[in-house]
Amino acid sequence: MKTLDTERIKKDFPILSRTVRAGKRLVYLDNAATTQKPRSVIEAISGYYSVHNANVHRGFHQLAEESTDILEKARAKTAAFINAGSAEEVVFTRGATESINLAAFSCGKMILKPGDQIMLTVMEHHSNLLPWQQIARETGAELCFIPGREDGELDWPVFQQLLSPKVKILAMTHMSNVLGTINPVKKYIDAAHEVGAKVLIDAAQSLPHFRVDVRDMDCDFLAFSGHKMLGPMGIGVLYAKRSLLDMMPPYQTGGSMIHRVALRDAVWADVPLKFEAGTPNVAGAAGLAAAIDYLEALGMENIFRHEQELMRYLLARLEAIRGVEVVGRARERGGLIAWHMDHVHPHDMAQFADQEGVAIRAGHHCAQPLVVRYGFSALSRASLYLYNDRADADALAEVVEKTARFFHGI
Amino acid sequence: MAFEDLYREVILKHFKKPQNFGPVADEDAAAEDENPTCGDHFKLLVVLAAGRISKIRFDGRGCAISTSSCSMMTERVLGKTVAEARAMISEFLGMVQGKCDPADEHLGDLAVLKSVRDFPVRVKCAALCWQALSKALDKLA
User: Fold this and answer.
1) pLDDT above 80 for A152
2) Are residues A153 and A86 part of one domain?
3) A343 contacts on B by Cβ (under 8 Å)
4) Which of A51, A150, A155, B68 is 20 to 30 A removed from A370 (C-alpha atoms)?
């Protein structure tokens, strides 16, 4: 265990030295939306285009060899990072959204029949809700939902009542992007497997912040995005068990994903290329590999501990402000905090914060049913990452106090 | 400074105590509009008599900008003819989008919302109720 040296870390992120709104220091607390990028990631992307750029898997020249090598090494590094059984279990996508769509439309269509059930939770991001709504409509399957308790944890007894052999797929988030709740996914996965269901875990909010081991968890699918873990936008991953990937039909078809093509039919390439039609985002994969290197050098355990300590500090500071109500009181929670303040709309809160250089999120956070479930139409949210420090938390707390003074006249 | 121009006393006054605000049953709503990025939602009740807006009331939840805009709008268009209200809608929307600079006396207190043009994401907040009014007039007139 070591303490993160945030002063040194901040220097690795060029954007953190810029100013906003007429000379204010940038206090970036919108990491659940996207994280900033260290110099090493930016250089991996520009280095790829400056030195290696070529299409992959089909060229016979040296650049094509190098480019293919960069893509496949990034795949192997990603597989090792999540402890996948092999690199072939890592499918590159545009992001978690595409990963979930791929799983839903390829595996969902393959296994779902009318009357089957797809089980979700009330705390899903729209990206792990809407693909399943679509696939339910197409296949005649039904959706059912694990409810949330008042404290922001899932209702395990109700889940046990809902679970039956009719449930063919369970798709749930590892960590809520609104409540911060870290769901104990392992026990849900084990229970779902007992009735024969396949399980997809949305790790977009969890994997950037703590160690995720797909073999220990035993999930069938895991989806995440590169840009929420220091990597570039436009690259993401669908992990899936090899046995499933072998059975699943392609999600998109075209170049790269074939073995042999005739005018009237085609033979698909082996996994994972079967699921990667078209020219892949090699620069994105190079950036993702650099991001994993950066995270591993700091240590996921150290990152998690740092965020936990800072989250508790910020929680205490926010709760000391009159009128602030933190939404989500789960025992296990990650480094993000959503709150409501009486008589202050989150839009106005975010505008006041922005004026002081503090970047937070306001709105329904692409989880509208969840925000409504807790009785709100919108919430403010601050989300932490490895470069944030107490000065950042203090800057937020001060602007929340200032906003309260303006609207409440105290 | 644009920010201080925007969050002025008059905005706060209308946000804390909106005018012509009260419950509107779904079946009475002439129009509604929402901001999909934040979930803000307004319903508008509009009654026309002899070509004039004889009654207007709004219901819903929004931020200080959208609520005050709606409150001031209802005060401003009450009693106006449909043509006058339509002219005001295009003048106001043009102002917040930075396309025109109407004389202050045309819009009264609403002129303070001119500063939202410096905050692109907030233009939608200020415009929300005006778009709803436009829809309501299309339906009723």
Assistant:
1) yes
2) yes
3) 16
4) B68
Q: Is A1 within a domain? A: no
pLDDT at B1 over 90: no
CB pairs under 8 A between A and B: 47
> Which residues span the domain enclosing A310?
6-30+299-408
Of all residues in chain A, the one with the smallest CA distance to B61 is A377
| A346, A355, A377 member nearest B41 (Cβ) | A377
Sorted by where each starts, the structural domains of chain B and their CATH numbers stand as 2-140 (3.90.1010.10)
Which chain B residue has its CA at the smallest distance from A407's CA?
A: B12
Is residue A35 situated within a structural domain? no
The model's pLDDT over A1-12, given as tens digits with 9 standing for 90+, comes to: 789 999 999 999
d(CA B34, CA B129): 9
CB contact under 8 A, A347 and B39: no
Answer whether B119 touches A (CB < 8 Å).
yes
